[in-house]
Specification:
The protein has 726 residues and is α/β, with parallel strands linked by helices. It has six domains: 99 residues, PriA, 3(prime) DNA-binding domain (GIY-YIG endonuclease, 3-Layer(aba) Sandwich), CATH 3.40.1440; 66 residues; 182 residues, P-loop containing nucleotide triphosphate hydrolases (Rossmann fold, 3-Layer(aba) Sandwich); 170 residues, Rossmann fold (3-Layer(aba) Sandwich); 58 residues, no CATH class; 85 residues, 2-Layer Sandwich (Alpha-Beta Plaits). The strands form seven sheets. It has a seven-stranded parallel beta sheet with strand order 12-13-11-14-15-10-16, sandwiched between helices. A hairpin with a 6-residue loop joins strand 21 and strand 22. Helix 7 runs parallel beside helix 8, helix 19 runs parallel beside helix 20 and helix 20 packs antiparallel against helix 21. The longest helix is centred in the N-terminal third of the chain and has 16 residues. The protein is globular. The structure holds a DNA duplex (12 and 12 nucleotides).
DNA sequence: TCTACCATGGAT
DNA sequence: TCCATGGTAGAA
């Protein structure tokens, strides 16, 4: 007996294997990849038909029939199905979760139909002269229609006819109303892009990419180019080549929210050939975009992380811009890395993948050094502007000279100088809120969140202490909840406090602050950036979002208040992230006139991540970093899996973790595959759940992953598995 | 995930 | 004895 294998569309790991259903004859042949409605228990559920199977003998359970077909054409191509399976096994998540990444509507059991609209078709016997003179607009529409022969209701409304008038004309003799699929095709002027000249260096990088696009080769290129070297130009050339071959190009950008340079340039150059995916799109806009890609009305999709799951086959090119950016790794739910998925999809679609960055991820650069990726380098800035001058300030020294303020002498001087020259400055501080923690002077106890193991942060707005890990907030206590003393003091400086201090020291400066507290109100972040770009502010103060890809012409100076905030995070990639952040933010200075100045304050002035970023020396940094990782077996010279067990009972969490370690111990080969833990995490408790962790590190984790995928560990409650944590 | 089922246990 | 709660196996 032939049965259909259906994955129930529920994010439950326990339902990871497909369920068998019969296909009733009246539904005909259902292609794999189609969404179907099936009975499950006593409810009706949505599922994805992933294939067929022959049952040798009658099963012990009842085979129920599929109730309905939800997609006219299968939503999932076979490539999407196989990529989802790969993702599920690699990242140890449920197949249904992996599949749902490719869908755009989380509402279930909704069938999707291609958008249709009504068209009025004029028949030979239509006589507008019979329409009474009194009905002026209808008569005009009649003659207008006769001229056109056929027109859609939508287009007539655009031409100034109201809906009642059109409705009335539709009833007249000689007018036939037809339903047609919406056609939104607009002509694209390819010349715009073709005329974009490339420098010789760019041309050299572009040649092999072009060859790979035309020959449909799944090569991966690492395009390493300093900021301002014209990577976008190469992306656009490659995309236009892909478009000329009538295949789809996917362009991934880090965070689309903040007015993204690349998006604007693509839209300007390619017009309606570009479809922009971002989280603010409505469901119908998403469907419409997808439909455009499927009909090849548009060939380029540009968007953040999730755009890699564009439901399309025939991908001809994938570009990951700023490939080192950490926003490509999803940190909640399914913790996939978009760069990894891009690689899989490029292989399955036989198309090249371009990874572009000024500071490539250590992993990508390593693979390029191994000859697995092809390294392409842009060493010169297009207009040959010099890179900014970077000064490193040792804050320990500042303190020795009695300066306890957040601004070193050099920093104050740079601010004063920039303001004096009527130029703009960006100041980076990786801490939001007012103060970093609140502590009692008597007993030395910091005030902690009652639900999480973290110090609460004072936020001026609302005069409240907030926890950055949960929604908990409370007013600042008058007396210490621990010892009753009144000596409560604020320590450390967040963006809010620094803003205040800046304003006090430089009363005339116009200061804009950009951090999560400001961005939560939608559109406000973009507005601040736009205003700053328009010169309405002198200083832009903010968390790392000020460091990313904006091109402000008036900015000549950049200040980093604490380079250590990222460096001190206990992660193997802390140095890499520090180097990236410093290099990125320094790159904001002097983009147009070339006299950029940067001041970096730090307590670790001798750390190589800081020294190498001062010298704009990526390769030097890479060499030191790869050595450090080689010694410790960190990625890319080994892979890691992070297990987090959460439980409201600390002992239970520990017990579960120990059970997991015991089960995995058979794979332990010291030096080859190591298991660390179970240990309490740095932050012991979040939202009243205790956190215990296990870390597995090894040169090859495939077999241990396969084991976990098929064992009880996979469905263990309260366990979160993070493959390739960053 | 959702649901039905069973076990436990406190209140009546 | 009743019902409420909690934990858990199974769904085709």
């Amino acid at each position: 007996m032939r049965v259909a294998e259906v994955i129930i569309n529920r994010p439950a790991k326990k339902m990871n294997s497909p369920f068998s259903y019969a296909v009733p004859p009246h539904l005909g042949e259902i292609a794999p990849g189609t969404r179907v409605a099936v009975p499950l228990g006593r409810t009706k559920e949505e599922g994805i038909l992933i294939g067929y199977r022959d049952l040798a003998e009658a099963p012990t359970y009842e085979i129920k029939p599929i109730q309905a077909v939800l997609d006219k054409d299968p939503w999932f191509t076979s490539e999407m199905l196989s990529t989802a399976k790969k993702l599920s096994k690699y990242y140890l998540c449920a197949l249904s979760e992996a599949l749902s990444l490719f869908t755009i509507d989380k509402k279930q059991l909704k069938s999707y139909e291609r958008p249709k609209e009504q068209w009025l078709v004029v028949q030979p016997w239509f006589q507008p002269e019979h329409i009474p003179m009194k009905r002026k607009r209808q008569r005009e529409l009649g003659f207008y229609l006769q001229e056109l022969g056929t027109a859609s209701v939508h287009s007539l409304q655009k031409d100034g006819f109201t809906l009642p008038v059109i409705k009335q004309v539709m009833t007249y003799e000689g007018i036939i109303v037809e339903e047609r699929y919406t056609q939104t095709k607009t002509k694209f002027n390819a010349c715009v892009v073709k005329e974009l000249p490339l420098t010789e260096e760019q041309q050299q990088c572009y040649e092999p990419i072009k060859r790979a696009v035309t020959t449909c080769t799944a090569d991966t290129f690492l395009l390493h180019g300093v900021t301002g070297s014209g990577k976008t130009q190469i992306y656009m050339k490659a995309a236009s080549e892909c478009l000329a071959n009538d295949r789809i190009a996917i362009v991934l950008v880090p965070e689309i929210m903040l007015t993204n340079q690349i998006v604007t340039r693509f839209v300007e150059a390619f017009g309606d050939e570009v479809v922009v995916f971002h989280s603010k799109l409505t469901i119908s806009e998403r469907y419409n975009n997808w439909e455009r890609l499927r009909r090849k009305d548009s060939h380029i999709i540009i968007g953040a992380r999730s755009a890699i799951f564009a439901p399309t086959d025939d991908i001809g090119l994938i570009i990951v811009d700023e490939e080192h950016d950490t926003s490509y790794k999803q940190e909640d739910m399914i913790r996939y890395h978009a760069r990894k998925v891009a690689k899989w999809r490029s292989e399955a679609n036989h198309c090249p993948l371009i990874l572009g960055s000024a500071t490539p991820s250590i992993e990508s650069y390593y693979l390029a050094m191994q000859g697995i990726y092809r390294l392409l380098e842009l060493k010169h800035r297009i207009f040959h502007q010099p890179l900014p001058k970077v000064q490193i300030i040792d804050m320990k020294e500042e303190m020795m000279y009695g300066n306890y303020s957040v601004f070193s002498g050099a920093m104050s001087h740079l601010i004063r100088q920039t303001l004096g020259n009527k130029e703009q400055m960006i100041i980076l501080l990786n801490r939001r809120g007012y103060s970093t923690f609140v502590m009692c002077r008597e007993c030395g106890e910091p005030i902690k969140c009652p639900h999480c193991d973290v110090a609460m942060v004072y936020h001026q707005s609302g005069e409240a202490l907030r926890c950055h890990y949960c929604e908990y907030h409370e007013p600042v206590p008058r007396v210490c909840p621990h010892c009753g003393s009144q000596k409560i003091k604020f320590f450390g400086s967040g963006t809010q406090k620094v803003e205040e201090e800046l304003q006090r020291n430089f009363p005339k400066a116009r200061i804009a602050r950009l951090d999560q507290d400001v961005t939560t109100k939608k559109g406000q972040g973009e507005q601040i950036l736009a205003d700053f770009g328009a010169g309405q502010y002198d200083i832009l103060l903010g968390t790392q979002m000020v460091a990313k890809g904006h091109d402000f012409k008036g900015v000549t100076a950049v200040g980093v208040l604490t380079a250590d905030s990222v460096l001190n995070i206990p992660l193997y990639s802390a140095s890499e992230r520090t180097f990236d952040l410093l290099t990125q933010v320094a790159g904001r200075a002097g983009r147009s006139n070339g006299k950029g100045q940067v001041v970096i304050q730090t307590y670790n002035p001798l750390h190589y991540a800081i020294i190498k970023s001062k010298a704009h020396d990526y390769i030097g940094f890479y060499k030191e970093e790869i050595q450090a990782r080689e010694m410790l077996g960190y990625p890319p010279l080994g892979a890691m899996i992070h297990f987090r067990i959460q439980h409201k009972d600390k002992a239970k969490a520990m017990a579960i973790a120990e059970k997991i370690v015991n089960a995995l111990e058979v794979f332990l080969v010291p030096g080859e595959l190591d298991i660390m833990g179970p240990y309490e995490e740095g932050i012991k408790k979040v939202r009243d759940l205790y956190r215990v962790a296990i870390m597995v590190r090894g040169n090859d984790l495939k077999s241990i992953k396969d084991f976990i995928y098929n064992s009880w560990i996979f469905t263990q409650e309260g366990l979160h598995i993070d493959v390739d944590p960053v």
